[in-house]
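thread: overnight batch results

M.L. [08:02]
morning all. the overnight job finished for the chain we discussed friday. pasting input first so we're all looking at the same thing
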Amino acid sequence: KENIKRYASAMVPMDEALVMLAVDISGRPYLAYDIDLVREEIGGFNTDLLKDFLQAFVSKAETTLHLRLLAGRNSHHIIEAVFKGLGLVLKEATSVGEGKGIPSTKGVI
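M.L. [08:03]
and the structure it wrote out:
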């Protein structure tokens, strides 16, 4: 965790859907989930599992993650924007920053 940027955010469009994501690799698991999916299933995938997966992810990664649906009605596009956005913010937050050491006033993440 030394020298990482730690924070990242993105707004990801996928057709009519627009999702905002923000991550803090903080050592403190927290999920703020403001996404309402209309469909219960997409191609055999139970859409309720999206939130369950993200909750498990932040718990094990000890990461704070905020998700907000800004626009959209197609559940497939929304879920696709969430996962593409998650990849983007994790890539940015784990990239090497300009600082030295652990990016925390406590010295621990």
